[in-house]
Request: fold
Amino acid sequence: MQDVCLGYGRKVVLKDINFRVMPGEMVGLIGPNGCGKSTIIRALSRIISPHSGKILLDGKDVSRVPRRDLARLLGVVPQMPLLPSVFTAFEVVLMGRNPHLGLFQYEGPRELAITWRAMEKTGTHSLAERRVSELSGGEIQSLLMARVLAQETKAILLDEPTANLDIGRQVEILDLIRDLCRENSLAVLAALHDLNLASQYCDRLVLINNGRIQAEGTPREVITPRNIKEVYGAEHCVYTHPINGLPTVLLKAGNSQSADMEERGA
Amino acid sequence: MSRHQPGSAFTNQAPPVHFPHWRGRVYAILGLLVALGVAMIFTTAVGSVQIPFSTTWQILLSKLPLVQVTPTWPGTLETIILEIRLPRVVLAGLVGGALSLAGATYQGLFRNPLADPYLIGVAQGAALGAVVGFLLPSPWHNMGFGIIPLLAFVGALISTAIVYTLARVGKTLPVTTLILAGVALGALLGSVVSYLIISSGEKMHGIIFWLMGSFSLSQWSEVKVVLPYVVVGVVVILLYARPLNVMQLDEEQAQQLGINVERLKLILLAAATLITAAAVSFVGTIGFVGIIIPHAVRLIWGPDHRFLLPLSVLSGAIFLILADVIARTVLAPMEIPIGVITALVGAPFFLYLLRRRRRIIF
Reply:
């Protein structure tokens, strides 16, 4: 992304956003609620277009790439998407093949095999015949991973891939994403709100606050006591992970800024 | 890397599931094609003049190229079969298939199970056009070409175009705005139609009969007019079956899966409106087919549009052909408006399906 300003209508949500994601690299997008993480994901996948600036993908301006070509380069795992409840899991994953097929083509054995392999990799193949309405939140998240795999893109955007998952499932999904990123040298950009997961899994982090980039770099450079206090208002909460030494955020009750001020006032 | 199922036996193989399903649906399409043929022959044989099936069959066969059948029947029978009944059956099939497909398309495009071909103003536009046609002084009716179907067709297209224009927000066409604009304009046109009917005097009977739909005036010339629209529209819509499946996700996901959502909406709306307008212009706004047949197909064969759409065309055609035969035989020589039959016969059957398969269908 180069000097991108984003917004809805006249309202500017994000200003001077500038970062890049390399193949084989996993970058985390972090920041408080409503800071524009999802907006960045939507702009990158051309759901909204930037007010100014350019978004480049593989050297090409995203706004000039036809949608079908874009969907062959860039896959998106949306947050809490609407899925048609009467379709089977397999049919939903098969939709990932859509950008690879022309108007006059139907899904052949190749499409079915790719879809099936994507489902195996994500452990969703046992769900293939089940209807979407029968699946749990975690299963749907895995299914969306399978769909983006079936899409066979060079880059993947994930919007809160671990929201609503239990911790076992969170680690499972993120392990899968990281392995795929490394194996197929995918460029991965994930919006995450869990700072600990972001720190554990991402090569680099981009911290968004007040419509601009607050900090960018390795987890050690970004998750610092100063940044966390400035952005989230929580003090004394950044520690070092006992095993791998990555920054870790541990919270304590009564530690928010407002609680702080009450204390001072009293 | 297969984290969950190490050494799975299926890797690099076609999936072991799903082919049976698909094969079943392909058989269903073939089966319905045969049923359509049978229904056409059967209904051509039935009528006020009873003609044996064998004779009907022979008369139809004799008209096929490369088939030699020595005529053993009186010429009047041939006229009844080929010039009166067959065009009627063919037109009923075309209209049934068109309405049913348009309904399935709208339901899919709007992700709304209540959508029917008349949702965005086609019916009221056509009705207004037709009523105006009825009320025009007699010179207009002697132009050699039916002024009523022409006005109905034009009315349908104009009202949809108005709805479309009103519903646009910038470069996009939000589905809810479209439906609301359609409902509102429909109500407006509907009240104009009601007023015109009340003040139409002795022409009231003909107008109401048209509104409820009838095939009583079907001729080959009408089939020739309707056929090209329906064929083109059906082919276009069937081509977009897979994108329509992807549209069942939300619009954002569909875009991220490579679909130009706004263009898809425009193409499918245009095609569905065209076949609906062509269908209703000659035979009136026949209700029920467009909303119920796609749901019945969904109940039996599932929601996949690649099968839902062709199966809807065939089922709709068969359904309307059979409904028409009831309409013209039960009270013969009087005809019952076909709209009465479609609901009277179709609704109980649909309710039966709905009870039998107790699960979510949309």
Q: What stands out?
A: Confidence is low (pLDDT under 50) at residues 1-13 of chain B.
